[in-house]
């Protein structure tokens, strides 16, 4: 039989790359988006969930019924839950009580046990989601804590898969890689592999306005003034993740909520690629970078699109949400006004 898999995990990785034909037209280079939404859990995090769990299996740390613990309501939670089901483990996720009900419903649909912890307590409070996850992992025999921000296997997963895929897909012609950094694993692992192949490849991290990563890369210190609330989920941080290899990154670009939101909607409307908020952010990062750096028509630029837009229907793809943020200029911000919606009785 062709193209059949033993289980859903066989679909992880080998994601396609698609040329952008309109949104980045102002740039002479060829620009490709690597669509991590084509993983079965619809994000790049499938790769790390599978790699970290299989590494623990190889080390003899897991048995049927073992518990996999993580502290996220985001993409990693979905991926860990998915891998746990197929491999016969229990998945426990500690999330903050700010998590939207639909996200918790999604995690439960994938069989996860969810601990909802108060968001407004310090990280070292025993009720915080960090401490709850650590306690469960400590008290449960044969359990592992994924700990994606501080787990080097997060980098390895991308060194072993995402990086080689990009090299092969571009036939070694890639000149620039752009990636949003949350844990930093996707960009760091891919960068490490690609720089070993060709140290001239430029690695550009895209950071959120409100995060400390760009400032830390430039000065080696955390500037408390960089920290402020922002809306883009999954990228940027107010701590330094061990999974981010700063020395692999040539430069960081900082993008804001508003331009990233417009860009996300533009990609859907012009390229028909329904990306998550950080897909818009990484594209915005390239457009800003191109304003101050020479790019030639021989360059081959790869943008990592980390997840699928379906997770953001009530956020960047919602006119109401855009209006609530005050994002009302620059691009389509009201689908009804531009395209019209007719109600037929
Ligand atoms: C939507 C989204 N984009 C980007 C990232 C950043 O990926 P990484 O953690 O590998 O830096 C994440 C990570 O959680 C994410 O959820």
Automatic annotation (TrEMBL):
InterPro entries xref list: Cys_Synth/Cystath_Beta-Synth (IPR050214), TrpB-like_PALP (IPR001926), TrpB-like_PALP_sf (IPR036052)
UniProt-listed Pfam families: PALP
Requisite cofactors: pyridoxal 5'-phosphate
Swiss-Prot/TrEMBL GO biological process terms: cysteine metabolic process; serine family amino acid metabolic process; sulfur compound biosynthetic process
UniProt-listed CDD domains: CBS_like
This protein's UniProt keywords: Pyridoxal phosphate
UniProt key word Glycoprotein: no
Domain Tryptophan synthase beta chain-like PALP positions: 9-307
Gene3D superfamilies assigned: 3.40.50.1100
Family: Belongs to the cysteine synthase/cystathionine beta-synthase family.
Protein name, entry field: Cysteine synthase family protein
């Amino acid at each position: 039989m062709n193209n059949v898999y033993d289980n859903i995990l066989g679909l992880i990785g080998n994601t396609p790359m698609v040329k952008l034909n309109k949104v980045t037209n102002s740039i002479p280079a060829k620009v490709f988006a690597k669509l991590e939404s084509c993983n079965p859990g619809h994000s790049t995090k499938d790769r790390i969930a599978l790699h970290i769990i299989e590494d623990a299996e190889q080390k003899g740390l897991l048995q049927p019924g073992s518990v996999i613990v993580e502290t996220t309501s985001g993409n990693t939670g979905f991926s860990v839950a998915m891998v746990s089901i197929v491999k016969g483990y229990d998945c426990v996720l500690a999330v903050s009580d700010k998590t939207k009900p639909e996200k918790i419903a999604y995690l439960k649909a994938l069989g996860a046990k969810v601990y909802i912890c108060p968001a407004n307590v310090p990280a070292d409070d025993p009720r915080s989601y960090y401490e709850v996850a650590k306690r469960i992992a400590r008290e449960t025999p044969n359990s592992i804590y994924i700990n994606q921000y501080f787990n080097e296997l997060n980098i390895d997963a991308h060194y072993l898969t995402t990086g080689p895929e990009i090299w092969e897909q571009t036939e070694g012609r890639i000149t620039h890689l752009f990636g949003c950094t949350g844990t930093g694993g996707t960009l760091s692992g891919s960068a490490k592999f690609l720089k070993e192949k060709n140290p001239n490849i430029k690695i550009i991290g895209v950071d959120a306005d409100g995060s400390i990563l760009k400032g830390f890369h430039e000065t080696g210190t955390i500037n408390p003034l960089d920290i402020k609330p922002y809306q883009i989920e999954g990228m940027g941080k107010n701590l330094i993740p061990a999974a981010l290899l700063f020395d692999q990154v040539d430069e960081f670009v900082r993008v804001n909520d508003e331009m990233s939101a417009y860009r996300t909607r533009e990609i859907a409307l012009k390229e028909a690629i329904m990306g998550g908020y950080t897909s818009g952010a990484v594209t915005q990062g390239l457009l800003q970078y191109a304003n101050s750096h020479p790019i030639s028509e021989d360059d081959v630029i790869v943008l990592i699109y980390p997840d699928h837009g379906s997770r953001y229907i009530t956020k960047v793809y919602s006119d109401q949400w855009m209006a609530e943020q005050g994002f009302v200029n620059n691009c389509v911000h009201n689908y009804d006004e531009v395209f019209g919606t007719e109600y037929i009785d």
